[in-house]
TrEMBL record:
Residues 147-287 form the CdaR GGDEF-like domain. The lineage of its organism: Bacteria, Pseudomonadati, Pseudomonadota, Gammaproteobacteria, Enterobacterales. Signal peptide: none annotated. SUPFAM superfamilies: Homeodomain-like. It comes from Jejubacter calystegiae. Belongs to the CdaR family. This is PucR family transcriptional regulator. It holds the Pfam family HTH_30. The keyword Coiled coil applies. Residues 341-378 form a coiled coil.
Length: 409
């Protein structure tokens, strides 16, 4: 895993540094360090930095420290170190400690007697060493996930030399930011790109923190637009509710329309099957937006018939089935797009019970019956036919999957 603030505080020679706030964020990964010499830091950090505030080149009163914390939160810094002593910043103000706790930023106190040249040299050396180890681990794990490796036994030897246990079954858990299409539609190109990259940086940091909280030995992997975790079993089962809550909290904090979604593979034990597990996680991720937008997490083991649908290579065959079954219901150029589709879905979810379907949709029974008549007219089928309801359930899944792919392509 990447070096965290907690790892840095544990380095020999840095024992005098102590956390004052945001101790839950000591798992935050540190990309590099930055010594703040200007009034603000927003224009000088990119995310992931451990920011040192000395007060030597610029006076640091309570107002300025609060400003730095807010800017640090906005830019996604790993944490902040404030040097205290009789000459510049005598003590960290209580208001700064309270704000750091509110913003969940690790706030560290460093006495001036501990020389900055020693601190920065120790941190830089440790970061470079950890980065070299992480690069080697990521390279090895990505080879397994892509199936591009010379020999399994060589992989096992490399893993043992790096204290990674690959013998236990694990799940491949993939994350992706969705909503980029809407982002570039609503904002100018440069602004949308800047926002997207900042969101990816923040997502990476949050995932790194989550890995540390789960005490996971595997590093976070990135391939294309996906972030990938490897969770040893029964890790996903044990942490699924917590992961779901974490995704929901992140959605509330993030700017619309971007949202982080998650897809998990079934458990895999054989190293030669890791690439299959990645494909499963990708399939679960692809249907998460359309089929479980409120849950944000899609488990491949719970996809049911979608496993079969996602494995069909001929996408045109699926599209034809959905179109033949649903008819004009899924035509995009409608006065009320997808209103009848949602009504049909509600009826199927309630096993054909019209009263409960009306309650689910929060509409009057008469309104529901009017819509059901239109569904029968436009689909060419009767809702009393159980075969049609079965076909419609499958066709709606196919349509939702195709809509997800269309929106994110």
């Amino acid at each position: 895993m990447s070096m965290t603030i907690g790892d840095i505080l544990a380095l020999e020679g840095l024992g005098a540094m102590r956390p004052r706030a945001g101790e839950h964020s000591l798992h935050a990964p540190v990309r590099w360090y930055y010594v703040a010499e200007n009034e603000g830091i927003a224009d000088w950090v990119m995310g992931g930095e451990l920011v040192f505030v000395t007060g030597i080149n610029h006076p640091r009163d309570e107002t300025n420290l609060l400003q730095l914390l807010r800017e640090g939160r906005e830019r996604g810094i790993a944490g902040m170190v404030v040097l205290t002593g009789p000459d510049f910043i005598r003590a960290i103000p209580p208001a700064a400690i309270a704000l750091a706790n509110t913003l969940n930023i690790a706030l560290i106190e460093q006495p001036y007697q501990l020389k900055m040249v020693i601190v920065t040299e120790l941190i830089a050396t440790a970061l470079v060493r950890r980065d070299q180890l992480e690069r080697s681990r990521r390279d090895m794990l990505l080879q397994l996930l892509t199936g591009d490796y010379p020999d399994v036994e060589i992989i096992r030897q490399r893993a043992r030399s790096q204290n990674l246990d690959l013998s236990l079954p694990l799940r491949v858990v993939a994350f992706r930011l969705t909503g980029a299409v809407a982002l570039f539609r609503d904002l100018p190109g440069e602004a949308a790109e800047a926002h997207l990259q900042q969101a990816r940086q923040l997502a990476s940091q949050r995932l790194q923190v989550l890995l540390g909280q789960l005490d996971n030995p595997f590093p976070l992997l990135v391939t294309g637009q996906m972030f990938i975790m490897l969770l040893p079993e029964p890790g996903l089962s044990r942490h699924k509710q917590r992961l779901q809550q974490w995704l929901q909290e992140g959605a509330e904090d993030s700017r619309e329309p971007l949202a982080l979604l998650c897809g998990a593979s079934s458990a895999v034990s054989d190293l030669s099957h890791w690439s299959n597990a990645l494909a499963e996680a990708r399939r679960a991720l692809d249907v998460a937006a359309g089929l479980a937008p409120r849950q944000r997490l899609c488990d491949y083991d719970q996809l049911g018939v979608i496993k079969l649908l996602s494995a069909v290579g001929d996408r045109a065959l699926l599209a034809d089935f959905a179109r033949d079954t649903l008819g004009r219901l899924i035509e995009p150029a409608r006065r009320s797009p997808y209103l009848l589709v949602e009504t049909l879905e509600a009826l199927i979810q309630e096993n054909g019970n019209a009263l409960r379907a009306a309650e689910r949709l929060s509409i009057h029974r008469n309104t529901l019956h009017q819509r059901l008549q239109r569904i029968e007219q436009q689909s060419g089928h009767t809702l009393d036919d159980p075969q049609f309801r079965l076909d419609a359930a499958v066709a709606l899944l196919i349509w939702r999957m195709s809509q997800t792919n269309l929106q994110e392509s």
